Every structure is written in C-alpha cells, then in structure tokens.
Amino acid sequence: MHPRLGALAALRLTDPDAKMAATRELVARVLSDDPAHAAVDTAGALATPVRAPGDDVGVPGRPERPQRVSATAVERRSPFTTDGRAALVHAICHIEFNAVNLALDAAWRYDGLPEAYYRDWLRVADEEAQHFTMLRDHLRTLGHAYGDFPGHDGLWSMCEKTKDDVIARMALVPRTLEARGLDATPLIQAKLRRANAPDALAAVAILDVILRDEVGHVAIGNRWYRWLCERAGLDPVAHYRMLYRRHEAPRLRAPFNLAARALAGFTAEELRELTLDPEAPRPPC
E strand or H helix at 98, and its extent? Predict the structure, then answer.
C-alpha cells in the first residue's frame, strides 16, 4: 500500500489500540533501512497525489468513548487524589490520541511536498503513538481506561479549520497549539511532584519523555512553516498574524517555556515579542 494511503487507513481506525499498532507498523516499514521494506517508498512516491473525493469520510476515526465535550465543560483535575491524577493523565492521553490523528492527517492530506515532509510527520505519528501507549498503560495502573473521562476536541477543531491550507496547518497546529504543550508540561509536572505519590512521580517521568519529543515536533512545524512561506513568497511573520486572526487561534498566555521554545526553533525576536504583552491576543511572531 502507498505509505500515505497507509496513513489514511490508520487515521480512519476507531479502536485506539489498532490505530497505534497500525501507525507504528506503517512507520517502521517506511523508515526502515531494510530495502525489502523501504521498497514501499520508491523515489518520489510520498509526494505523488493520493487524495480522492470522499476521502474525508471517516476522518478521523475515533472510539465511542471518551464522551466529547467543550473545553470549558472539562472538570478541573486535582493532582492530590488518585482519581484526580487519573483524570489528569487521561486528559493528556486524550491529547496524545488526537496528536496521532493530527500527524497522520498531515502526512496523508497534502500533496506535492518534499519526501522529507512526509517522513517527518510519519515519524511524529510514531512518537505520538508511543506517548499515547505509555499514558494509557499508566492510566490502567490507576484503575482506569482511556475513555473513562470526557475529553474535548480543541486540537482536532483547528485541524478541520486548516484542512485546505498546509501553511495554516503548520502555523496553527504544531507551532501554536502543540507549542502550548511546551509551556504547560513543566507546570503539570510541578503539581504532580507536590503530590509526591509514586504514581504521580511515574507520570512526571513519562512527561519528561513527552516534553523532549514535543520539542522536536514543534521544531518540525516551525521548519516546514518557514519552508512553505519561502516557497510561496510569503513573509512568515506577517502571514502568521493573518492566519492567527483568520482562524481565531487561542490566546497565548504566560508563563512560557522559553528555553524549550528556543530549542524548537522560535527565533529570539519571536520569543521577545511573546513576552512583551502575554495577555494580548496575538501570535508569537
């Protein structure tokens, strides 16, 4: 199967375990050094058009649970009770489930880009699947399963808004929404450390892995956003501002993890402006 069609097939799967397994198998084949497996990815194959009318049917595949609610309807999760920590881990697990779908969609949806673009997003999908699996397994040790708590669709709703514009997708998903995770993760870890329960400290260790990988994912978004702007003759700063307003991206609020954002490729100018007026409804560039 064409690797991008494989990404679409995995994207449509509704069972979380099946989706993760299909994603990891696909990526292992496409990125393998074994010629017998790499043969599925002949020169230029990843960049050839694969989309057809009706392909969006069943995208994304999601299980019946968790119940989907608005972000404002999600209850606050205390890190000082076992159930509160379970709800917190579930919320992050749900983010990672959506992140798998986002990466698969980025790899499948957009035609005519360099092969490296598709390889990057398939690699991201693989790492997001690993994150989901770690969190799901940890959730089980707390007596819960993925789907036991409600979840919101904030990440996927931006995916829908940007489905016809790869530049907007790169601008507003990895380098805006996912970059917020770089800011939020250390704060969550600090709360879990204060709880000082064995399961809380185990969750901190999982989040260390996720934060490390997410720096790379945001960097991929930054790199391809700038590449796409250069190809289209667009000023990346001015165009980002326009996209941010057009698609009503969420307001960015302090505190910011400036060190992680710098590692992820945000420029000194972007970081400086980000801190000038953190309550202003404007993007970090």
Answer: helix 82-109
